[in-house]
Amino acid sequence: MPLNHQDQVTLLKDILNDHQTDCCGSTAECEQLERLAKSLMVNAQVSQNIKDILQDIYYYSQEGAQTADLDQHIVSNQENLSQWVNDIGQFS
Predict the structure, then answer these.
(1) CA-to-CA distance for 28 and 43, rounded, in angstroms?
(2) Contact of 60 with 77, CB cutoff 8 Å
(3) Best CA proximity match to 56, nearest among 73, 36, 80, 32
(4) Which of 12, 21, 54, 85 has the smallest set of CB atoms within 10 Å of its CB?
(5) Are the C-beta atoms of residues 21 and 82 closer than 8 Å to each other?
C-alpha cells in the first residue's frame, strides 16, 4: 500500500528526528530521506512552505548518502535538523 503525502511527511520527520536525537544514522536512511523529499517536492498537495524546506533536506540527504563520515555529517547539521523538524511540524 503506497503512503499518502501526510504519511510521507510523518516518516520524513521521524527519520530527521532520529538523526537529530541519536546523532547518527545510516546511508539507507539518507537514501530514504532523499526519496521522500523528492516525492513530496513534486506533490501538488504539499504546501510551498514545506517544499522550500524539502529542498534543503534533499541536499542534506544526498550529501549524507555520499559522505565517508555520516555521523559527523549528522552532528554538523544538528541545528538544521532541529529547525527542519520544527518547521515541518508547523506546516503539516
Answers:
(1) 23
(2) yes
(3) 80
(4) 21
(5) no
Query: Cα 92 to the chain's mean position, in Å?
Result: 14
| Domain ranges across the chain | 5-91
pLDDT < 70: residue spans in the chain: 1, 92
The total of other beta-carbon atoms located within 10 Å of residue 82's CB is 14
Q: Are 40 and 9 in contact (CB under 8 A)?
A: yes
pLDDT value of residue 2: 79
Alpha-carbon span 62 to 60, nearest angstrom: 6
HEC string for 3-69: CCHHHHHHHHHHHHHHHHHHCCCCHHHHHHHHHHHHHHHCCCCCCHHHHHHHHHHHHHHHHHHHCCC
User: Looking at residue 47, what is its pLDDT?
Assistant: 87
> Which amino acid makes up residue 41?
M
